[in-house]
């Protein structure tokens, strides 16, 4: 069987991109019960890894290379910026949530700090960094445009929280994670994401990022 023409292949790739990064988050936000989020993320991750494997040409060992290039100053800066931003948002909007876990369930915080990087940050990074920049490279704009698009779809993937706070924070975070991935490799993006997420939950921003608190606006 003959290969599809380049224009057809590009069109199919765009359709796949739209389904994965726009359609799936929209369906999850509109219809998925909040308690099934991790199951959906697991399916999403397996599908993404399958697509990455089918693409070919991806160096899988790159996922575990680059630990020596971790941007420690940026990691500390993001941790501090996340802490201060979270405190400012909560002070203005939900002061009772400030350090809620630390005050009420301190024994639960180490559980979050251990499992969030593995069960949430890791699969998200696989889908939104290696898969995005490798399989869909031919569709991406040049330079900073690719990073901006990556941050935008990463933010849209959090539509399920129905919060402008979440949308803004994930766009900014996605920008830094994408840049770290392109400049320093996968471990840097994963660590930055894990640290930012752990600080958010410690400071009390689970008020926005916990699916159990989500209220759909319809």
List the helices and strands and how they pair.
Elements: H1 6-31, H2 37-55, H3 72-93, H4 100-104, H5 109-135, H6 144-156, H7 164-184, H8 186-203, H9 206-209
GO molecular function: endopeptidase activity
Domain CAAX prenyl protease 2/Lysostaphin resistance protein A-like: 109-195
Keywords: Hydrolase, Membrane, Protease, Transmembrane, Transmembrane helix
Describe this protein's structure.
- Pfam families: Rce1-like (PF02517).
- Residues 109-195 form the CAAX prenyl protease 2/Lysostaphin resistance protein A-like domain.
- The chain crosses the membrane at residues 12-31, 37-54, 75-92, 159-178, 190-210.
- Keywords: Hydrolase, Membrane, Protease, Transmembrane, Transmembrane helix.
- The chain is mostly helical and 218 residues long.
- The protein has one domain.
- The protein contains nine helices and no strands.
- The longest helix is centred in the middle third of the chain and has 27 residues, at 109-135.
- The chain is globular.
- The model has no long low-confidence stretch (mean pLDDT 92).
Keywords:
globular; transmembrane; mainly alpha; membrane; 9 helices; Rce1/LyrA-like_dom; 218 residues; CAAX prenyl protease-like protein; 0% strand
Number of domains: 1
Please summarize the sheet with the most strands: none
Order of helices and strands: HHHHHHHHH
Share of helix, binned: over 70%
N-to-C span: 48 Å
Q: List low-confidence stretches.
A: none
In short:
The protein is mainly alpha-helical and 218 residues long.
């Amino acid at each position: 069987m003959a290969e599809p023409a380049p224009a057809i292949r590009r069109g199919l790739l765009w359709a796949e991109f739209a389904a994965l990064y726009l359609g799936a988050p929209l369906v999850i936000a509109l219809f998925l019960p909040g308690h099934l989020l991790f199951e959906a993320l697991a399916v999403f991750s397996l599908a993404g890894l399958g697509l990455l494997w089918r693409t070919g040409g991806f160096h899988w060992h790159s996922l575990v290379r680059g630990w020596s290039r971790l941007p420690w100053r940026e990691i500390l800066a993001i941790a501090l910026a996340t802490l201060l931003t979270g405190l400012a948002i909560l002070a203005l909007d939900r002061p009772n949530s400030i350090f809620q876990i630390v005050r009420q369930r301190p024994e639960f915080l180490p559980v979050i700090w251990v499992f969030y990087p593995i069960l949430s940050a890791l699969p998200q990074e696989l889908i939104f960094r290696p898969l995005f920049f490798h399989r869909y490279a031919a569709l991406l704009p040049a330079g900073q445009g690719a990073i901006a698009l990556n941050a935008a779809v990463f933010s849209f993937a959090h539509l399920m929280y129905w919060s402008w706070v979440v949308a803004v924070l994930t766009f900014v975070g996605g920008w830094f994670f994408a840049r770290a991935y392109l400049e320093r490799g996968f471990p840097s993006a994963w660590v930055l994401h894990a640290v930012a997420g752990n600080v958010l939950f410690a400071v009390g921003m689970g008020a926005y990022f916990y699916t159990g608190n989500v209220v759909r606006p319809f």
